[in-house]
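Note to self: user wants both folds in one dump. Writing first protein now.
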Amino acid sequence: MTALYLLEPERPGPEWAPFGGVRPIAELRAGAWRIRERWEAACDAETTAILGRHVAGFSEADEPPIRNPDAVEGPAVVGAAWFAPAGERLPLTAARRLTHRGETVGWIVGAGERWTGPYETGDSVEVEGLRLRGAFDLITALEQFLGEDCADLRAAPGTGVPEGSLVLGDAAGVVVMGAAVEPGVVFDVRQGTVVLEAGVEVRHGTRLEGPLFVGSRSRVLGGFLRGSAFGPECRLHGEIASSVFLGYANKSHDGFVGHSVVGQWVNLGALTTTSNLKNTYGPVRLEVEGHRLETGRLNLGTLFGDHVKTAIGTMLATGTVLSAGANVFGAPAPPRYVPPFAWGCSGSDRVTAEGFLRVAERVMARRDVALTPERRRSLERTYARMAGGRAGG
């Protein structure tokens, strides 16, 4: 049996803010599925390990072990975590490399061989997918993959159209896998399939426009959701468009979130709103710790790192990056870059490690998730990497 390993960037640069050093790139969501899940489907194999120093000690839930990028014994495939395969099975032939548009994105290690690091020699086979230039390209991946990801689930066992729902388009585009849907919900499937996983609750006064994927045990509390993918245990309300929620995020109130990536355990205060288009209608540029990044995208909202919290009425400019653990308050319009564990929008105050862990434990308990010793140590390492142990408010 061929083993699967996923190689992380050696030192994720500012283009991977706000997730580099916080969680594996392989655990980010590209379309309905995580990058790791896309590789597993393409190779028909479970991941043996994620190879990456920048997230040493990361522990969360169901991720494979994290280890240093040491030697790999064949037979194995080593896939680049910055590449999201499309839905087709990869042709694992006698070639030594997987390439996409001339760039190596994977390595095939034969039986009895040893992989000791990336190489650019040997026969290659071309594979379909998306080469991710940074965290902002998770929106590009959403646009490229979500429609097909949701359509692939049309054959999944379901309960049919919920009683009292209004369907615009072909009813086969409504995929309900054990969700509870109140009467009066509108399913607009004229542009794509709507998928509700097990345990999802959708309340009256909600319009769901496909393609749309709502992960298990999430609650949709009203509003207009379209063209988005939501991980498990999210709380959703208001208008959300073309956005990726990794999971366990809370947006329970009005406010617009568009073309944004929302990390785990994020809490958006009521009326938090993102701008996703510049007044000039020009391409969006990110500014991260003095680095200017050209995204080439016309629509890009906010990148919310894990455990970010925003105050009521927060207004976020086009192309804003809120780093992990930041508490954003004190100004209606925060700067376009907020550093890790910031306390407020100005000055150098930081959340203390003790305060961060205390709040994280309270937040997780609200989703019946325990802050185990392993997860606590993982968050302690994240704090040390990203905040450098600096104390603050």
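First done. Writing the second protein, which came from a different request thread.
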Amino acid sequence: MLLTSAASVAGANAQARPTATGPGASVAVGGGFSLFQSIYGQRNLGGGFVFADLAPHWRFDMEAEARVLHLHNSEALTESNYLMGPRVLLRPDGLQPYAKLLVGDGHISMPFGYGHGDFFAVVPGAGVDLALNDFVNVRVIDIEYQLWQRFPYGTMRPYGISTGFSVRLTPIVRLPREARARH
């Protein structure tokens, strides 16, 4: 009896497999289309954007973003921004809601070439990505409210939405790495 008990315990594991797993560190690049309400002249401006997410941990990353808004204007008004800051993901797979706070340069070229300027921009935002697989995400929606400081007519506050996709350049490391037990 003691021998059969010892034999049955030998095959059992005393500890559970780790449950605190995530996709690990990653690098992703992407781009898409944006539509923003320019407060200067009350215009809707469209354009493209590119971004990169550098994540040392699945939940926290740094996002760098560049956007040029030059579509849907009749007087050659353009806005662009070059931003960077932290982003926090709430879930690692499936629908991935996130919040971010970016800072950087907001650039405007005035209508008819009357002037241009660069302004310090603080940009809170939030959105949702959809993980299609281990390498491709769809940026379902990204919402930003930009605060451009020291604009001559007070703080400029363009806001808008973006959509696009990203490609993960690093593979997902699943933990534990050991082979799964056969049942």
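Dump finished. Worth passing along: Helices lie at 2-10.
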